[in-house]
Amino acid sequence: MSTSQQPDPRDRPARLTVGVVGAGRVGPALAASLRLAGHRPVAVSGVSDASRRRAAAMLPDVPLVPPAEVLQRADLVLLTVPDDTLPGLVEGLAETGAVRPGQLLVHTSGRYGARVLDPALRAGALPLALHPAMTFTGTPVDVQRLAGCSFGVTAPEELRLAAEALVIEMGGEPEWIAEENRPLYHAALALGANHLVTLVAQAMELLRAAGVGAPDRMLGPLLGAALDNALRSGDAALTGPVARGDAGTVAAHVAELREHAPQTVDGYLAMARATADRALAHGLLKPELAEDLLGVLANGTDGAEGDAG
Q1: pLDDT the model gives residue 27
Q2: Residue 102, CB half-sphere, CA atoms under 13 Å: how many?
Q3: CA–CA separation, 24 vs 47, rounded Å?
Q4: What H or E segment, with its residue span, contains residue 127?
Q5: DSSP string of 107-118?
Q6: pTM assigned to the model
Q7: Which of 244, 2, 236, 242 is nearest to 102 (CA)?
Q8: What is the number of other CB atoms lying within 10 angstroms of the CB of residue 142?
Q9: CA distances from 305 to 153, 260, 289, 296 (A)
Q10: Is the torsion defined by CA of 265, 271, 276, 279 positive or negative?
Q11: What is the tens place of the pLDDT at every residue in 118-160?
Q12: Structure-model confidence comparison of residues 218 and 7, the more confident one
């Protein structure tokens, strides 16, 4: 596709040349997905050896070039760099004249909306924020996982259809997020996904310490059912000693954790308090049982010990 003309985005040919700035786990997967939709990856930039290997594996025969050259070659540029790096990158590209009028500039940060691309907008670029609500491995399996993945989409109103079309071409589901709601949106995803990994890893460590030979096999069905129930029923899916008000069991848990895994105690107590609050509000935790339970949670190991039941 010729880059000498700068047509209105609504008149663009359906197929675009695609560039990637930042060959982390996300960029190559999105570019590979766009390639399956008929677009043509033409350039990728990466600094570390790992990013270069990833780009070679996910985007074979696509040349590795500096970021400014990526923008020279591509009609659609994916800026897939860490959140804290993004503002400076955009400003630098705009100040050096790398941004071309009419160029689609897409970032994948969950934290930022389209406003972070304002320096490029002033240079004539078309700004889109397309954040895939997915955890990435940096392998080809990521392309398959994009099917049905929700994308947090933020863009100027006149580019909304273009943004949503790109998401659909990658197999995703567009979800419009207002500019001012991006930080809250991103916090929600981090709370649910990133903290889940920490909780699962801690649970597996504790099971190994308890003598379980295959903690992943034990946790898989349990956590799968819990996740499914939570997504279907919300707080009504709460079960376990906190929701039941079993103060003695919770006290026993805390005592065991203090002895065998003291680094997990603060997290256990924090999540137990949050669970108790939600169980109370939802009517699952009886008020007459809540007092002893909340006392245990407030005092750490204080409270009567009882059977796990």
Answers
A1: 95
A2: 15
A3: 10
A4: strand 126-132
A5: E--SS--SGGGH
A6: 0.85
A7: 2
A8: 22
A9: 50, 17, 15, 10
A10: negative
A11: 999 999 999 999 999 999 999 999 999 999 999 999 999 999 9
A12: 218
